[in-house]
Design brief:
With about 210 residues, the protein is mainly alpha-helical. The protein contains 9 helices and no strands. Helices cover about 75% and strands about 0% of the residues. The two termini are about 25 Å apart.
């Protein structure tokens, strides 16, 4: 299995490559086609309702709450030192925010027309909600599995489902292009690798 540092570096490089790719007409044409499909789906109340729920893990108040809940479970189980757990989850949450804002400072990709019409002018790439949710969910899953508090398979599947639903919901709600979401998944995985690597390092020295 690749090291956490290798995963983080590969994720960072992939985000840069994807950002460059979105400037090509063919990639934008694919995004446009997927946005048109999402627009048709947005006419259905049930789809909008489901997307509004699916986006929750990436909300600014929710991903720190998820991180805090994971930390509380590990601490309550009294398994190992507390500092590595808190440091890892704080790194996942704060690191994800810093990561997607850093990319947006450099690459100011416009949002879909519907988002712009609703006054959302912040750069689109990568999706912040998706980056934040993915980073915290994957890090939390790693800690819970590493501490033996949950089956690795169960927490991995749960984290993937929630991260996927967050990303898809951002497209269905019209806030992002599909490649913004893909970039968010990749960036979030990179941040999670950094956070998990930090946890392992701190645990060894604690």
């Amino acid at each position: 299995m690749p090291s956490f540092s290798t995963i983080a570096l590969a994720a960072g490089a992939s985000v840069i490559v994807l950002a460059l790719a979105t400037r090509y007409p063919r990639i934008q044409a694919l995004d446009d086609a997927l946005e048109r499909g999402a627009e048709r789906l947005r006419q259905r109340t049930r789809v909008l309702r489901a997307a509004s729920i699916g986006t929750l893990p990436g909300e600014p108040y929710m991903h720190p709450t998820i991180g805090a809940a994971c930390a509380a479970m590990v601490i309550a189980a009294a398994r190992g030192p507390v500092v590595p757990v808190l440091a890892a989850l704080a790194t996942a949450s704060i690191g994800a925010i810093l990561a997607h804002h850093a990319v947006k400072l450099v690459y100011r990709r416009p949002r879909p027309a519907g988002a712009l019409a609703r006054g959302k002018t912040e750069p689109a790439f990568p999706s912040g909600h998706t980056t934040d949710a993915t980073a915290v969910l994957v890090t939390g899953a790693y800690l819970l599995a590493h501490q033996g508090l949950a089956s690795p398979t169960v927490v991995t599947v749960a984290a993937l489902i929630l991260a996927l639903s967050t990303g898809v919901s951002r497209v269905l709600l019209g806030w992002h292009w599909s490649t913004d979401v893909l970039g968010g998944w990749i960036a979030g995985a990179g941040v999670a690798a950094c956070a998990s690597g930090l946890y392992d390092s701190l645990t060894r020295f604690s």
